[in-house]
Amino acid sequence: MAEEDENGGTEEVVGVIERTRQVGNEEGAGKADSVIDAFGSLTVGGSQKQRDAAEGRVVDVVLSDMMMNASGMPFRDHAGSMDLCNAALTFCYDTLVTGGHFLCKFYQGKEDHALEMRLKRLFEKVHRIKPESSRKESKESYFVCLRRRPDVAREDVFDQPG
Ligand SMILES: C[S@@+](CC[C@H](N)C(=O)[O-])C[C@H]1O[C@@H](n2cnc3c(N)ncnc32)[C@H](O)[C@@H]1O
What we know:
The chain is of the alpha+beta class. The chain has four helices and eight strands; from the N terminus they run ββββαβαβαββα.
């Protein structure tokens, strides 16, 4: 998109994301919490939504149906599924807004309890569901995770024993 600049010329503007800055205004004044976004801009105080945006949390819902090609070996398929679920959870941690939701398919096995504990540290409600449309003999199941909690430290999700 071409835009006219202050000298009457034009320049190409591609992919510019506008960011709201709340530096030194009344709303932010006196509040202890501040963040520096990916471009080095300081945001002091402001709403949860503004803090989310400043830190790149802009996604409302993450759905993951990821699965590797099944090997037929239950533990191998389970371990691969856990790796993909943890990658999806990392994506949620980085991008999901506070209050956002995550739905994730997984293959059941002995590591899924540790994953569930991790999910519970990031989300207010975590449901484990096996819909009727999923074949009973299949190990696939789903976690439905509702409402991302505010202000959860990364290490509190990922670096805790299951
Ligand atoms: C069950 S299929 C999903 C089908 C999809 N929901 C659809 O309707 O087309 C599993 C998908 O996970 C993807 N996948 C497997 N490993 C992946 C990885 N490491 N990163 C990203 N996607 C992966 C596969 O490419 C495959 O498309």
